[in-house]
Amino acid sequence: MAQHKSAKKRARQTVKRTERNRSVRSRVKTGMKKFRTTVEAEDADQTTAALRAAEGLLSRAASKGVIPKKRARRHISRLAKRAHEAASS
User: Fold this and answer.
1) How far apart are CA 18 and CA 16, in angstroms?
2) CA 13 to chain centre
3) Spatial contact of 27 and 55, defined as CB atoms under 8 Å apart
4) What are the Cα distances from residue 51, in Å, to 32, 39, 64, 72?
5) pTM exceeding the 0.85 threshold for the entire prediction
6) What is the pLDDT of residues 16-55, one digit of tens each?
7) Domain coordinates in residue numbering, the chain
8) CB atoms within 10 A of CB 5
9) How far is CA 58 from CA 26, 53, 79, in A?
10) CATH of domain 5-88
């Protein structure tokens, strides 16, 4: 357990940051899952809306430093590719 005042503060900050990051990560996962379900349902309008929502969530998470920027870009690229494939078929 932390003994010094600064270490105690650091422990408090870590708890807050962990909770915030967990909720952001959870929202990202939910957005991606919603996108996948719309692709499987083959609904073009909902797919584009879900893609936009997932892109926003990923970009926001990357800008806040919750996930690395390159990972967010990679996921967005893969989602867009999947949406394009679903639309063309």
Assistant:
1) 5
2) 22
3) no
4) 8, 10, 20, 13
5) yes
6) 999 999 999 999 999 999 999 999 998 888 999 999 999 9
7) 5-88
8) 8
9) 11, 9, 11
10) 1.20.58.110
**To the nearest whole number, what is the mean pLDDT of the chain?**
95
Q: What secondary structure does DSSP assign to 7-76, as a single string? A: HHHHHHHHHHHHHHHHHHHHHHHHHHHHHHHHHHHT-HHHHHHHHHHHHHHHHHHHHTTSS-HHHHHHHH
What is the per-residue pLDDT across 59-87, written as a single tens digit (0 to 9) for each? 999 999 999 999 999 999 999 999 999 98
What are the tokens at 39?
């692709």
Token readout for 36 is: 């996948």
Residue 57 · residue 47 · CB < 8 Å: no
